[in-house]
Design a protein that fits this description.
single chain; two-stranded parallel sheet
Length: about 180
């Protein structure tokens, strides 16, 4: 858990692009949150309250515009990687898992056991799953690219429908 400094501001916006409706948020350091589709503002509010107690949430569409642009380009199939900075706070293990996710190429998937091996914890698939589930920046840190060892769809904070849509988008299927 991160303790917010007095006066910390988390800026947020809502992206509405095609059938996608997502809340996004950023600190002065970068993107810190992408929500699940069609979830209420209260989901973002609860996330900020739990991880940055005392931080002020301020709607600022202009400040979030660069993040929204990259995300909508991705959703249009025109972007494969993200360049905007992220501000992800987590344990050293979570950070290692999130870095491993960033190494999964666009349009490919990896299993939980492959990610566990990448972070030198080959028997820690459940811990890897928990770290993946704690990823606050859906899409940009591509946890949707992690599937079961058999290739089966498994849990996803954004829901299995979102995970399926993102994987189909990356495979060139019109979503």
């Amino acid at each position: 858990m991160t303790i917010a400094q007095k006066g910390q501001v988390v800026r947020w916006s809502r992206i509405e692009h095609g059938t996608w409706r997502l809340h996004v948020a950023a600190t002065e350091r970068g993107l810190c949150y992408i929500g699940s589709p069609d979830m209420p503002f209260e989901q973002l509010e609860a996330w900020v309250s739990a991880r940055m107690p005392g931080a002020a949430l301020v709607r600022d569409d202009a400040a979030l515009a660069p993040y929204a642009r990259e995300l909508t380009e991705y959703l249009d199939g025109a972007r494969r990687t993200f360049e905007a900075p992220v501000d992800m706070k987590g344990t050293a293990f979570q950070q290692a898992v999130w870095q491993a996710l960033l190494g999964i190429p666009y349009g490919e998937t990896r299993s939980y056991s492959e990610i566990a091996a990448l972070v030198d914890r080959p028997s820690a698939m459940r811990a890897v799953g928990a770290a993946i589930g704690a990823n606050p920046v859906l899409v940009c840190v591509p946890c949707h690219r992690v599937v079961g060892k058999s290739g089966a769809m498994t849990g996803y904070r954004g829901g299995l429908e979102m995970k399926t849509r993102l994987l189909e988008l990356e495979r060139g299927v019109r979503v």
